[in-house]
């Protein structure tokens, strides 16, 4: 008579359960990607190069693509240096009053409604300038980007064993060199992951752009102090239209936005090598 080991049965059952739940977790993501590509790629192929370079009057999304790229660049230039410094400070001085307040504020900022960020930037920049602009949109997106980069920077540095700091200090290195030449390179994978997540987050944001960029799709951006368009805001605008052709353009723009995200995230993330410590 066969005898079954309860431990073996429980182990195999747990493996099957974990595998099943993992598949179920990724099914919605796979469905979203498949739906966007299956409905968006035919629109891109039908429109060809004109779809990617033409204005909205010509049935294209060229200004929105350039506007999205411009907003990513502006928000990164504003937000990344500040977020890196804040993350390093909260790591170096975790028990100080300012360090504790910084960590609490970062957690609040991650959960803060992004539409309120747009209203805030509108009040401090759009209204005084009397114009929507890429600068205002970039500032709003930078505020949204910063907590992700700062928290990932802090947590990545915390994973480095303290012995590395002790060894560096024993050689007489000043603190800033220990951080920039020793700790940051060791934590680069986690830090860059935070950067990618932050950029991916702001690349798909719509709510703060409603109050900051104006949505210009008939001409290409004229500068950071002028109104611009963006793919997420264009999709939001077109999907509310009753016209079928606008819905098709929205699907095409969604596919382009998804491909931009994949082109930014996957190559850099996969090229990062694990640092052995």
UniProtKB/TrEMBL annotation:
Q: Name one GO biological process term.
A: phosphate ion transmembrane transport
The answer to whether keyword RNA-binding applies is: no
What InterPro entries does the record point to?
Answer: MetI-like, MetI-like_sf, Phosphate_PstA, Phosphate_transprt_permease
What UniProt keywords apply to this chain's record, in alphabetical order?
Cell membrane, Membrane, Phosphate transport, Transmembrane, Transmembrane helix, Transport
Q: Which residues cross the membrane?
A: 12-41, 61-92, 104-126, 132-151, 249-268
Q: Where in the cell is it found?
A: Cell membrane
Q: What is its main location?
A: membrane
- GO CC terms on record? plasma membrane
Single GO MF annotation: phosphate transmembrane transporter activity
UniProt domain ABC transmembrane type-1: residue ranges: 65-268
Query: What membrane topology term does the record carry?
Result: Multi-pass membrane protein
Among Gene3D superfamilies, the record links this protein to: MetI-like
**Family note:** Belongs to the binding-protein-dependent transport system permease family. CysTW subfamily.
* Protein's name in the database: Phosphate transport system permease protein PstA
- Its source organism is Pyrococcus abyssi (strain GE5 / Orsay)
Q: Which gene encodes it?
A: pstA
